[in-house]
Design brief:
three-stranded mixed sheet; 195 residues; 39% helix; GMP Synthetase, Chain A, domain 3; alpha/beta; single chain; 9 helices
C-alpha cells in the first residue's frame, strides 16, 4: 500500500478551507522569490509588481486572518503606494465581514487599500471602491478640451470621514480602470445647484 500524502489543507482526513488563491504561486508568495514561471509572467506583463506585493502581504496575513484562506485574489493595482485589490465577486461578503482585515492589509502593504470584486461595469467597481458609503450618482463629464471624467456623488455623512483619501483614491482608480475620477459629497453637489 502506498503512503498517503499529507497536505496542509487536509486534517484528520477532512478537507479544511483550501489555501488562498493568488496571482502568483503560493510558494513564491511565502518565500518572496519568484519561480521561473512567475518571473516570466512578470516580464511579459501578465502580472505586475503590485500583484506580487499584494500576494506576499495576503499570504503573510492568511495565518492570522483565517478568512483569507477562503478567497481568490485576482489582481492588484498600485496607485502611488495605495492599492486596489481585485477579489472574486463572491468573496466580497467574506472579506467585508472582518473589519480588521482592511487595517491588517494596509499595514502589510504600507498604504491605503480598497477591495473590489472582479468583473462588472464601472459603476459596480466604483460602488465597491466606496463601500460602505453608498454611491448616489455616477455621471460622465466631458470637459471643453475633450477630456472625459467620471463624477461620483456620495452621501456627506459617511464620506466626510474619508475625504482625505479621495486624492489617494483618484490615483488608484486611474491605475485600476483608467477612470479619471471627480468625487463630490452630496452637500457639495447641492451647494453648486443653489443660486
Amino acid at each position: 500500500m502506498l503512503p498517503q500524502k499529507s497536505y496542509p489543507w487536509v486534517q484528520n482526513g477532512r478537507h479544511r478551507n483550501l489555501p488562498l488563491k493568488l496571482p502568483i504561486c503560493n510558494f513564491d508568495a511565502k518565500t518572496g522569490i519568484l519561480c521561473a514561471n512567475c518571473e516570466a509572467r512578470l516580464r511579459k506583463g501578465e502580472i505586475t509588481k503590485a500583484d506580487v506585493d499584494a500576494s506576499r502581504a495576503a499570504i503573510g496575513l492568511a495565518e492570522r486572518v483565517p478568512e483569507l484562506n477562503r478567497v481568490t485574489l485576482r489582481r492588484a493595482f498600485d496607485g502611488g503606494g495605495n492599492y486596489v485589490l481585485e477579489f472574486e465577486r463572491q468573496d466580497l461578503p467574506v472579506l467585508r465581514s472582518n473589519k480588521s482585515m482592511y487595517s491588517e492589509l494596509e499595514g502589510a502593504l504600507n498604504g491605503k487599500v480598497w477591495i473590489v470584486g472582479a468583473g462588472g461595469n464601472d459603476r459596480k467597481f466604483l460602488e465597491d471602491v466606496f463601500f460602505p458609503a453608498k454611491v448616489l450618482t455616477v455621471n460622465t463629464v466631458w470637459l471643453p478640451d475633450g477630456e472625459k471624467k467620471t463624477k461620483v456623488i456620495v452621501p456627506a455623512k459617511r464620506s466626510e470621514r474619508r475625504i482625505g483619501d479621495f486624492d489617494k483614491l483618484r490615483d488608484a482608480v486611474k491605475r485600476a480602470r483608467g477612470i479619471e475620477l471627480l468625487v463630490e459629497t452630496e452637500r457639495e453637489a447641492s451647494a453648486k445647484l443653489r443660486p
